[in-house]
Amino acid sequence: MKITIKDIAKIAGVNPSTVSRSLNDSDLVSIKTKERIKKIAKEKGFEFNANARGLSTKKTDTIGVIFPEEYEEFSAGLYLGYLMNSIRRVLEKESLDNIVDFPRNRITGKSNVEQLIIKGKVDGLLLINSELTESEVDVIRKSKIPHVFLHSKPKNFSILGMDFIYTDHVIGGYLATEHLIELGHRNIMTITTNEEGNEEFGERTAGYRDALRKHNIIIDEGLIFKVETNFRAGYNLIEENLELLEHITAIFAQSDMVALGVIEKLKELGKKIPEDISVVGYDDIKFGEYFSPKLTTIHQPRQKLAKIACERLVKLINKNNKEEVLQKILKPKLIVRESTGKRIIKI
Amino acid sequence: MKITIKDIAKIAGVNPSTVSRSLNDSDLVSIKTKERIKKIAKEKGFEFNANARGLSTKKTDTIGVIFPEEYEEFSAGLYLGYLMNSIRRVLEKESLDNIVDFPRNRITGKSNVEQLIIKGKVDGLLLINSELTESEVDVIRKSKIPHVFLHSKPKNFSILGMDFIYTDHVIGGYLATEHLIELGHRNIMTITTNEEGNEEFGERTAGYRDALRKHNIIIDEGLIFKVETNFRAGYNLIEENLELLEHITAIFAQSDMVALGVIEKLKELGKKIPEDISVVGYDDIKFGEYFSPKLTTIHQPRQKLAKIACERLVKLINKNNKEEVLQKILKPKLIVRESTGKRIIKI
DNA sequence: TTGTAAGCGTTATCAG
DNA sequence: CTGATAACGCTTACAA
Predict the structure, then answer these.
(1) Does any strand C atom come closer than 7 Å to the Cβ of A38?
(2) Do A169-300 and A62-168+303-331 fall under one CATH topology?
(3) A261: enclosing H helix or E strand
(4) pTM for this prediction
(5) Strand D footprint at Cβ < 7 Å?
(6) CATH number belonging to domain B5-57
(7) CATH superfamily of domain region B169-300
(8) Which residues of chain B have pLDDT under 70?
């Protein structure tokens, strides 16, 4: 038998409502009784029943975090795993629990976004990298549930009035490429994803193009490669394109895992990094720092992202939304380590 | 305004209780009205309010998943990330949501395990690698909340009557070492964690000893190394102990990431894997398969673990617990890939 | 087969 | 400042 507000009331010889007021720090109770009741509650290990409270107040103190399916994949999984931890750490400060869900249930086919909202299981939604259906957008809008999109730009529906925060990958691609150019490199290969329609990687490639253009370097379409985003794919790409190594002096791999695979193969071929070839990655996974040589990469400000998104969500939930909407785009940062260096002109 | 059971009742011209019964598939309603009501509910997009239902039935259709803090670490994080995905996939089948929490809130210092139980936010608990306080064990026992420990042996409290499932790491250590012995190796180094009191790794080392003993090989304490469990640590260990390479022909690294770091350094030193030195890892992270050479390792049956644990939990929740308790220990499996080979005796 | 009414634990409104 | 009471949305005896 769990202890309820009534039990406390009986013990204290007061009405349940007085207990409720006391425990909610209402100033409609005398400080004396308030403290007395709090003491009893603490002794008895009382905690509010979440369902009863939720039924009465329409608040659940839990928020829904929707992760994309590809969370399973190794490389994305790493990054998203970090992001998840950052989110949990921020929500912890607000004593909010979080329900983690995929966008939809694979068995029933139902949308978890809709279910969480309609069932009233959450006070707000953190939508990570989500493509929503019309029906989902509709439910979100009608229910007016607080929500923030993060990690990537909301796709396939109007952004109007929606809160979001993500990282600008055009700038990321630009920074990586410009870094190589400034080191004297001219023949720079880039490796993007072979996944159709992935905007995130599309932006990275756009940034690559921008940087080359800006520095009056002719874009060679033959230097833009599309492969899966994992270690093996980077490794294999080099193996299958050995003749390339004659032309290029630098590689911008749009994912750290690919970059590491590339480096691994280059090392096997007896190439020196960065003396023979410079390599830049993207994501700043911890592993890159452990690797040899330590990887130069683009850091996505995931902690900042998580922090801003969560804090905004909390504000929305508490109705402290001073600004109309939050639409923020963060800048990634270049982290120079050991895998890039000045172009050395061979005689 | 969300639609409630009353609204449906009004539309159908029946009493709310009839709607409730219909939607819960009670056979106290005529098939005709049942179907009529179901149709209306579907049209209106009705879903039960979780809080009201929970208040009434004491069921929440969500379970709590408690992850250890070290989820943040790279190597453990990977493994646990996989495990988490497996869990989510199983729970999805039961249409259960899951609240993910650390063991305790770092800010308030409160135990999330206790909070979730006392507040009645979850129907059951999946405790991953958890060390519980006395108070927590107490709350769990008194509340009789269904729960399963998984991933590692419950520590620091009596196992009696507690459900658990984990992988036997003694066998894992044994399999890895015996594999090397069978390939002709005699001087086998092992690398375990430097973390005090980590039973999991302690077991792996015990398995290593068992295998040597069984095959009448004298255990050289100088071949048991303790380092952090990450890539860099493996890499550095070799770098700092070059003289070792004279003596040994095989290494059992008790974590894949350490194994990969070891291999990386060995390759840099011009050693051939497995011709010069064989290396076995532990965990079977996907990356090991991508690496070159592909890593021989010990596979922990994480999907099976997740499946059995979740299914058991669901049974407990639905009170279908035929067996008294589930106390199961799974056997890990040796996966032979490219990083181990016959000992080659040099002339 | 259906309706009525009490109850789940909490909050909020209205008196006192 | 405190108590009584209705209400939140749903389930479940108990009646009919």
Answers:
(1) no
(2) yes
(3) helix A256-268
(4) 0.89
(5) A 13-18, 21, 27-34, 52, 55-56; B 2, 4-6, 16-17, 20-21, 23-24, 48-49, 52-53, 55-57
(6) 1.10.260
(7) Response regulator (3.40.50.2300)
(8) 1, 70-78, 156-157, 320-323, 346-347
